[in-house]
Amino acid sequence: MNKSYEYIIAGGGLAGLTLAVQLTLSQKLRNKSILILDKDSKSSNDRTWSFWSREKSFFDPIITHKWPRGIVKDDKQCLQLELDPYNYQTLHAKPFYAFCKEHLGKFNNIVWKQEKILSIDAHSGRVVTDTETYESQIVFDSTYSKDSFKIKPKTLLLWQHFKGEVIETEEAVFDPQTVTIMDFDTDQHGQTRFFYVLPFSERKALIEYTIFSKNILPEVEYDPYLQQYKKILGVKQHQVIDKEYNAIPMTDQVFPQRKGKVIFIGTKGGFIKASSGYGFTATQRKTAQIIKQLEKGSTVEHLKHRSEKRFRFYDAVLLHALDNPSIHSPDLFLALFSKIGAANLFSFLDEETHFLEDLQVILAVPNKYKLKFMKYLYLWRRVS
Ligand SMILES: Cc1cc2nc3c(=O)[nH]c(=O)nc-3n(C[C@H](O)[C@H](O)[C@H](O)COP(=O)(O)OP(=O)(O)OC[C@H]3O[C@@H](n4cnc5c(N)ncnc54)[C@H](O)[C@@H]3O)c2cc1C
């Protein structure tokens, strides 16, 4: 007979582990029998999550750094932004996985197995791995992999692709209070391109070159940009102590939330913000929504986590604008940050704003682009 669990969490990355942790924090759900499956041991530092936050979180003990100030700039102007009441924060994946596993290990009702999932049957809730077969009334599927990621025809997919280096310098170069959110002082090539700097101390920082475009570049093509930027920052003698080369999908596709007994979560469930590529905060928010519904006794047919339609629409519009070579992204982002301020923009991107506040963001779009944006009104029907 197949081993049966009340919930199976397929994929123990950000979404899977966040959901599991939140289940344990719920008085009503903490005793459910849960199986977490991942093909990987989740013991390497395979990414760094950064995000803005103004709230206390379960993950506060493993936050590596917080920045109260930020910079958004291009070749003409530099916006020095006070992020208050937010901080920009960073969390490394390795301590995140270890912290979650240690916490989940305290619960006898939660089992973590390193097995590769071969198939998930939506009708029966049966999960077949390379080792065994399991069954559940609800399978939360977050088994995302970049190489097999596909979208429906007629939807737009831009990759946010980047190469970053964590460097240690001999001299003091960085301001550990100020994060460079976007430095557009680089040829845009009709795309969106910027540098991103997370200074952990005066001598240590992550420096990243990021592009939003349809195709991912071979790794070596980012190197000249990174070398040049290090010179601009005044970096001389230094050591590269870590590297990051990867890509995040940004798409206006409306992801299915559910199929039979399977609830799609994480990247597979559309948790990545289409207009920014950020997924950490949305994952916290959307898994919390799922928990609330489970606590109220919602059955699998009624579980919902999709963003409100107006936010899906704004995301689609911004994504199409970023894909339009006649819209110069630095002008757009600098106008948004300078006219409405970092805090309001963050709250808009976190989908916490009312329509009147959204209107301020819409009005902050530079006049020269307003007509171009109007042409994207047709996307309202596509995001249904
Ligand atoms: C390098 C990188 C940096 C990022 N940085 C940020 C950031 O700074 N801020 C931010 O907000 N977002 C960031 N993101 C976006 C997003 O937050 C992450 O991609 C996040 O990890 C997505 O969570 P997930 O659970 O969907 O996917 P993952 O965390 O990738 O988890 C999916 C899991 O499924 C497992 N899996 C896949 N197939 C199978 C299978 N067949 N059997 C068993 N297990 C399987 C994988 O091993 C993996 O553990 C970043 C993404 C990347 C790739």
Structural commentary:
With 384 residues, this protein is of the alpha/beta class. The protein is built from 9 helices and 18 strands. 28% of the residues lie in helices and 31% in strands. The protein folds into 3 domains: 3-65 and 93-146 and 252-302, FAD/NAD(P)-binding domain; 157-250; 309-382. The chain binds flavin-adenine dinucleotide. The site of flavin-adenine dinucleotide (FAD) has 31 residues, from helix 1, strand 2, strand 3 and strand 16.
Brief rundown of the structure:
The chain is α/β, with parallel strands linked by helices. It is built from 9 helices and 18 strands. Flavin-adenine dinucleotide is lined by residues 11-16, 37-40, 42, 47-51, 116-117, 142-145, 244, 246, 248, 266-267, 272, 278-280.
